[in-house]
Inverse folding.
């Protein structure tokens, strides 16, 4: 169980009515699932809730949203919608770089600010932080908060939290998975989460263009440092050739870690803006959050990300240079 003392946040929730929830840019299932589950808990308590994120979620997560209204910056959101909130809760990040566009609105309001997060990387967002970097997922923290609020579970909330926790633990493969993690999962299944269905909806809904993109991406995998590092790149040309978009690269970096002997991996994805999004993964002693932080990004020891300026080849060269520094340090 988390060591967080939830009593002050419970008191804050009970004493306010209007809540705005946000998560990080390009939300993953932990961010989106945690956010929506918290919205359900707050509405059970009779609270008014709005959800506004920095960017839209991937299509594969549409089933999580269902009847919820999730808006994003650039979709006609105005300052008044942020000023409406008495409490603004940001989930699954505590870094300014993960709140593009939204950060400007966030800074201008007088609402009470709260962070619920489990990432190591952190900035001072001027908020009350409810943070546990040992937690495998923000979904676990939201589950604990729901228990502290004496809220009930139902199939919808169970599905949201199961998706959040399962994805951020690599479907329970990562070392962050604990006996308590599985205890939570057991309660979610009892409440109506269906693991086989959630996995199918998240990972088995690819279309033909996505499979063709996967083929191109895997065909470009390279290794370095005697096979300890595996990486691949995705260019705008790859998207044009396959009829896909950057969001369709979600999860592809994990295939690089399936190579025997690899200890770290990354994927470099060229954006329409010609910036390059880097997603890092690692095992054991390779702390990729340090690499991400060196480029203004962040995350976990074993799963992090950053955005670099292009061109693509230059970004990859810079990242390989940072891995060389890490490799040399580990060899000493």
């Amino acid at each position: 169980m988390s060591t967080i003392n939830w009593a002050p946040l419970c008191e804050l929730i009970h004493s306010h009515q209007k809540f705005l929830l946000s998560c990080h840019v390009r939300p993953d299932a932990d961010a989106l699932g945690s956010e929506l589950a918290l919205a359900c808990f707050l509405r059970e308590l009779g609270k008014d809730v709005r959800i506004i994120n920095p960017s839209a979620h991937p299509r594969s997560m549409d089933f999580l949203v269902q009847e919820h209204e999730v808006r994003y910056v650039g979709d006609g959101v105005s300052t008044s919608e942020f000023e409406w909130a008495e409490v603004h809760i940001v989930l699954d990040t505590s870094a300014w770089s993960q709140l593009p566009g939204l950060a400007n609105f966030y800074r201008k309001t007088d609402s009470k600010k709260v962070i619920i997060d489990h990432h190591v990387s952190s900035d001072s967002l001027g908020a009350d932080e409810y943070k546990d970097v040992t937690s495998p997922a923000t979904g676990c923290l939201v589950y604990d908060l729901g228990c502290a609020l004496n809220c009930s579970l139902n199939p919808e909330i169970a599905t949201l939290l199961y998706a959040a926790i399962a994805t951020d633990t690599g479907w329970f493969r990562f070392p962050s998975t604990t006996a308590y993690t599985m205890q939570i999962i057991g309660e979610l299944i009892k409440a109506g989460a269906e693991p086989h269905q959630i996995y199918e909806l998240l990972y088995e809904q690819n279309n033909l263009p996505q499979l063709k993109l996967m083929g191109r991406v895997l065909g470009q995998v390279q290794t370095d440092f005697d096979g300890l590092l595996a990486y691949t790149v995705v260019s705008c040309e790859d998207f044009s050739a396959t009829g896909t978009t950057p969001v369709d690269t979600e999860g592809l970096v994990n295939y690089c870690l399936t190579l025997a002997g690899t200890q770290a991996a990354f994927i470099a994805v060229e954006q329409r803006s010609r910036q390059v999004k880097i997603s890092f993964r690692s095992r054991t002693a390779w702390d990729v959050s340090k690499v991400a932080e060196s480029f203004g990004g962040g995350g976990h020891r074993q799963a992090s990300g950053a955005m670099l300026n292009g061109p693509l080849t230059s970004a990859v060269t810079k990242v390989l240079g940072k891995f060389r520094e890490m490799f040399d340090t580990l060899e000493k």
